[in-house]
């Protein structure tokens, strides 16, 4: 069976994903993007009609709009997989919740894990978590067969989506620690603390705590929190050095909707430290030194 793929979002991750999928000779890839010059055609309805699988590689603020836009054109059996790792600002909904609400659980999958675009586009290997039904996981396994992206499965769709948001927020903290020059030992303490917090938060929001230990959780946190390719890490560094300017990342965009969803009381200490630092960057060293001391 051939796979006709439509990737919505022709940014870095969308292009990198296309490079990987083309390693499977039975895959054909087309693009749809808000920039017409990056799209494979002018008519979204026609592109969807030709596709048996759609990947969403878009910023989190666009997830609800795009899902609503494609819904009328989806044919029976078309699977929509999101690589978006964010939380919708207006209603504090995770990507999985938006997609299930609009499309239903049987038509969607969430893909999350270590997927730095700069590495996957040149064919370096990685393994990621698919949050989906068992049948949809089998479809994705066939699409990624023979490529450099390997898959593990989780039925915990909510937990996989939440993990993707948390790793972006916590990656800011890795950048802050690095920018402050607090050292690798402090990063190790912070890493341990954040994984424990991810377990607690995922459970609190209705997922399974062990999802934090999957590639969508700890695996992606390690990659995003310690890579020169990570925007969240770079923004954290600049915050610590007082030079953030107008830089924005998914972690910055997601933290307040996440806290709104959790409730402002009894926030875990590492999450609270990142939030306090964003509000008062000049206190970053004191905030993170206390965090490490009390971990």
Automatic annotation (TrEMBL):
<dbReference type="InterPro" id="IPR013328">
    <property type="entry name" value="6PGD_dom2"/>
</dbReference>
<keyword id="KW-0444">Lipid biosynthesis</keyword>
<keyword id="KW-1208">Phospholipid metabolism</keyword>
<feature type="binding site">
    <location>
        <position position="117"/>
    </location>
    <ligand>
        <name>NAD(+)</name>
    </ligand>
</feature>
<dbReference type="GO" id="GO:0008654">
    <property type="term" value="P:phospholipid biosynthetic process"/>
</dbReference>
<keyword id="KW-0443">Lipid metabolism</keyword>
<dbReference type="GO" id="GO:0051287">
    <property type="term" value="F:NAD binding"/>
</dbReference>
<dbReference type="InterPro" id="IPR036291">
    <property type="entry name" value="NAD(P)-bd_dom_sf"/>
</dbReference>
<dbReference type="GO" id="GO:0046168">
    <property type="term" value="P:glycerol-3-phosphate catabolic process"/>
</dbReference>
<dbReference type="Pfam" id="PF07479">
    <property type="entry name" value="NAD_Gly3P_dh_C"/>
</dbReference>
<dbReference type="Pfam" id="PF01210">
    <property type="entry name" value="NAD_Gly3P_dh_N"/>
</dbReference>
<feature type="domain" description="Glycerol-3-phosphate dehydrogenase NAD-dependent C-terminal">
    <location>
        <begin position="156"/>
        <end position="254"/>
    </location>
</feature>
<keyword id="KW-0520">NAD</keyword>
<keyword id="KW-0560">Oxidoreductase</keyword>
<dbReference type="GO" id="GO:0005829">
    <property type="term" value="C:cytosol"/>
</dbReference>
<comment type="similarity">
    <text>Belongs to the NAD-dependent glycerol-3-phosphate dehydrogenase family.</text>
</comment>
<feature type="binding site">
    <location>
        <begin position="9"/>
        <end position="14"/>
    </location>
    <ligand>
        <name>NAD(+)</name>
    </ligand>
</feature>
<dbReference type="InterPro" id="IPR006109">
    <property type="entry name" value="G3P_DH_NAD-dep_C"/>
</dbReference>
<feature type="domain" description="Glycerol-3-phosphate dehydrogenase NAD-dependent N-terminal">
    <location>
        <begin position="38"/>
        <end position="136"/>
    </location>
</feature>
<dbReference type="InterPro" id="IPR006168">
    <property type="entry name" value="G3P_DH_NAD-dep"/>
</dbReference>
<dbReference type="InterPro" id="IPR011128">
    <property type="entry name" value="G3P_DH_NAD-dep_N"/>
</dbReference>
<dbReference type="InterPro" id="IPR008927">
    <property type="entry name" value="6-PGluconate_DH-like_C_sf"/>
</dbReference>
<dbReference type="GO" id="GO:0005975">
    <property type="term" value="P:carbohydrate metabolic process"/>
</dbReference>
<feature type="active site" description="Proton acceptor">
    <location>
        <position position="167"/>
    </location>
</feature>
<keyword id="KW-0594">Phospholipid biosynthesis</keyword>
<dbReference type="GO" id="GO:0016616">
    <property type="term" value="F:oxidoreductase activity, acting on the CH-OH group of donors, NAD or NADP as acceptor"/>
</dbReference>
<protein>
    <recommendedName>
        <fullName>Glycerol-3-phosphate dehydrogenase</fullName>
    </recommendedName>
</protein>
